[in-house]
Amino acid sequence: MIDFRIDERTRERLADAREWGRSAMRPAGLEADRLSAPLPEGHPYFAKFIERGGGRTRWPGPAGAKRERTSVVETLLLLEELAYWDRGVTVADPGPSLPETNVLAMGTEEQKERYLGPFLAPDRPRWACFAMTEPGAGSDAAAIKTSARKDGDGWILNGAKCFIGGASRADWILVQAVVGGESGRRAQRSFFVERGTPGLGGFKIEKKMGLRAYESTSFTLQDCLIPAANLLGGEERYESSAGFKTAMRTFNAGRPIIAANAVGMGRAALDEALAFARESGLLHRDRVRDRLEAMARKLRMARLVCLRAGWLADRERPNITEASMAKALAAGVAQEATALGMELLGATGARGDHLIEKLYRDVKAMDIVEGTGQVQRVIIARNLVGLPR
Ligand SMILES: Cc1cc2nc3c(=O)[nH]c(=O)nc-3n(C[C@H](O)[C@H](O)[C@H](O)COP(=O)(O)OP(=O)(O)OC[C@H]3O[C@@H](n4cnc5c(N)ncnc54)[C@H](O)[C@@H]3O)c2cc1C
């Protein structure tokens, strides 16, 4: 039986997230949006985030210290709440972020210690990032061209990546590349490229319509020489390292998170729309009430599908279809909620200085990242009719 009840500790963590979101994240997100630039690395917001225990790894450390386990359902509820306040800031937050899952799944003990160790109790804001997307390879991640060539005791990487979250400030980037002069899924491996490595450069922060609090960055790798030990999983797992599968597993695990973020953003838009309708007397109109009611209903539905994907993950049961359904549904509903808000606010929203307008621009990315809505629908349909993924 599915049961989403939460305990007192989770309730407290949600209340804490709400207060942090209201007092710190929302103002930081608005500041970045107005300046149209990511929050700088030295921004006091990040130091405060580290001070309150943020930016840490899930890795228990070399001695395997016991840590309280956070369930996927609890994580989704927390990330929904944080995105309610500012989804761009949640991604700007320091931490080992997206590649952590790959390193935990595939990394050697030495790699976990070297790359996740500094995130156990970070002395300063630290970032890491995962670089898959290239100018010619977005949805079709199997088409990447960045290459890694063995050279004596190391690897030489060449290629270009784009739209990578936090790349210019990351201590290390987990770069996806093809090996052996081949292409396609089977040739893919992941490599740690550390900040300052000669040949890693050309950082350019992309212009974005929304989510401006964090940087999405393109960069190049030009004859970038890295030690052999930087191959994720190590040399001994070279043949079986299945870099593509691990990367895809990360994206599968990320889909319910994006869905939860979208539900949070949709809730924020609905609250803005409701507040405006109340203040401006629009609530007297049946049609307005009907549309707000429909939105609340759809957001509730998206949240339940999202939590179900998390509930299955907590039980280590297959959830690919549910994860894709959650993302496809929630991103669409959240876009609808922000569009409704824009419509109800009319000229007040269109002036460009109201939160609803920022949400309207921010939410589009929820449909794009970690597999577009269309790609999710392709996955669901293939599973439905029993085609290989
Ligand atoms: C804000 C933001 C942050 C990002 N962060 C990262 C990051 O940290 N790391 C990273 O590696 N990447 C990142 N990305 C890149 C992201 O993963 C890609 O944008 C995404 O995979 C889509 O690729 P694309 O933009 O090249 O679009 P395309 O793949 O070119 O798609 C264009 C259109 O074609 C449709 N389409 C494509 N293939 C199919 C198909 N088989 N069937 C039906 N329709 C299809 C898509 O749905 C879409 O509508 C980020 C992107 C954004 C916008």
Question: How is this structure best described in words?
Answer:
It is built from twelve helices and seven strands. The protein has 389 residues and is an alpha/beta fold. Strands 1, 2, 3, 4, 5, 6 and 7 form a seven-stranded mixed sheet that branches. A hairpin with an 8-residue loop joins strand 4 (170-179) and strand 5 (188-194). It is globular, with a radius of gyration of 21 Å. 47% of the residues are buried. The mean pLDDT is 94. Flavin-adenine dinucleotide (FAD) binds at residues 129-133, 138-139, 163-165, 211, 216, 365, 368-369, 372, 374-375, 378. The site of flavin-adenine dinucleotide has 19 residues, from strand 1, strand 3, helix 11 and helix 12.
Mean pLDDT: 94
Shape: globular
Q: Percent range for helical residues? A: 40-55%
Largest sheet: 7 strands, mixed
SSE string, helices as H and strands as E: HHHHHEEEEEEEHHHHHHH
The secondary-structure class comes to: alpha/beta
Distance between the termini: 29 Å
Radius of gyration: 21 Å
Say how many strands there are: 7
Contiguous uncertain segments of 5+ residues: none
Per DSSP, what share of the residues sits in E-state strands of 2 or more residues?
5-15%
Short description:
The protein has 389 residues and is of the alpha/beta class. The chain is 50% helix and 15% strand. Helix 1 runs parallel beside helix 3, helix 3 (72-92) packs across helix 6 (243-279) and helix 8 packs antiparallel against helix 12 (373-385).
Chart the SSEs and their pairings.
Elements: H1 8-35, H2 44-51, H3 72-92, H4 99-106, H5 109-116, E1 127-131, E2 147-151, E3 154-165, E4 170-179, E5 188-194, E6 200-205, E7 216-227, H6 243-279, H7 286-314, H8 320-345, H9 347-350, H10 355-362, H11 364-368, H12 373-385
Parallel strand pairs: 1-4, 2-4
Antiparallel strand pairs: 2-3, 3-7, 4-5, 6-7
